[in-house]
Amino acid sequence: MKYFAFLLFFLLINCDKKENQHLIKPQHIPQENIALLVDNSLTMLAPDFQPNRIITMKEVIVNLIKKKKENQAFSIVVFAGNSFLLCPLTKDKNQLLSAVDKLDRGIMKMIPGTNFSNTLFNGIASLKNQSGNRTMILFTDGKENLKSYPYQLALDDAAGKNIRIDAVVITAKDSVMMPSTMDLNGNIQFAKVKAEPIDRILIRKITSETGGDFKVFYTKKELMEFDIIRFISEKPKESKPAKKTARINENKLSKIYEEIQRTNDSLKILFEK
Predict the structure, then answer these.
(1) CA 121, 114, 266: angle at the middle one, nearest 5?
(2) Domain encompassing residue 199
(3) What one-character DSSP code corresponds to residue 167?
(4) Residue 83 falls inside a structural domain
(5) Which residue in 160, 89, 87, 162 sits closest to 127, CA to CA?
(6) Residue 188: which CATH number?
(7) Which part of the chain is the VWFA domain (predicted)?
(8) Sign of the CA dihedral with 96 first, then 130, 261, and 156 last
(9) Domain assignment present for 11
(10) Do 232 and 68 meet the contact criterion of CB atoms below 8 Å apart?
């Protein structure tokens, strides 16, 4: 009788455990979609961040991708005077690392200059149909000197789509060796020039209006010690309310994204060579 009572008690406890297991649902972790916007202007060849700025940025981004979480997907956009979607949004580490290996290819293939507005629209396009959290990280060394579109339109579109923009800026404090001329063999010659100050007002505007933040680095040591994984994981700041976009601007946005796609299609041939 005692054995029967013990068996009954054991069965009841076991059934209760199974019932509780059915009640516990797995926690849903939202996907994090992140567009990496990487400067490919000629100044990224400056050797102050040894061996140069673009190679150093590649090291940072490789480290970020290798340590990415399972729920994180990345796209990669390179830019100079225009921009190119180097890698569409994916969780595949191998695909991303293969794209990072080509990060410096745009330096001699794209229009010279630095164009933030074109780049922001290309980044938004790579994220706009995705659910979950969406962020863009602008990696740059300078200030905008070309403008395809009003950057305020890009900021309003990003804020309206709840896309946060962060920025990582590298620059020299005093003087720096910059590309100046190219010889007949295609070798770039460098000259020592006074470092231009970054456009903090524009960078702050780009990030703050979308709830993001930015960091400025003057040495490779500072940059390599920076915890970028923690930086992108921090809770976003409250963004300013996006302005209501007039219907005429919606039409303009549609045309802009069509132009961005055409540029991506044309540059794809150059990047595959």
Answers:
(1) 60
(2) 32-271
(3) E
(4) yes
(5) 89
(6) 3.40.50.410
(7) 33-170
(8) negative
(9) no
(10) no
